[in-house]
């Protein structure tokens, strides 16, 4: 999924909101920043594995934040239904 798709998609931003969306079954795909704190993203990665959700990695927090139209970095973003 491209950054352009991420910009246009309905999403939640941040580790807490992403975790909530996964637990509620609303998340379709999760993006995790490569430079985010391991303690923040590892529980999300594990939860995605348990739920069978695709995880995209390879973007930095700044790149994820910009793709979401925010001025700060984002450790995690979920595309939601």
TrEMBL record:
Signal peptide range in chain numbering: none
Domain called Ribosomal protein eL8/eL30/eS12/Gadd45: residue spans: 6-80
Keywords for the protein's UniProt record, in alphabetical order: Ribonucleoprotein, Ribosomal protein
Superkingdom of this protein's organism: Bacteria
Keyword ATP-binding: no
Pfam families: Ribosomal_L7Ae
This protein's GO CC annotations: ribosome
Protein name (record): Ribosomal protein L7Ae/L30e/S12e/Gadd45
Organism: Thermosinus carboxydivorans Nor1
């Amino acid at each position: 999924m491209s950054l352009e798709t991420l910009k246009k998609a309905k999403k939640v931003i941040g580790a807490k909101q992403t975790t909530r969306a996964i637990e509620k079954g609303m998340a379709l795909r999760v993006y995790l920043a490569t430079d985010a704190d391991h303690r923040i993203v590892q529980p999300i990665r594990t939860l995605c594995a348990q739920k069978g959700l695709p995880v995209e990695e390879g973007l930095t927090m700044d790149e994820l934040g910009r793709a979401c139209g925010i001025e700060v970095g984002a450790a995690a973003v979920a595309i939601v239904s």
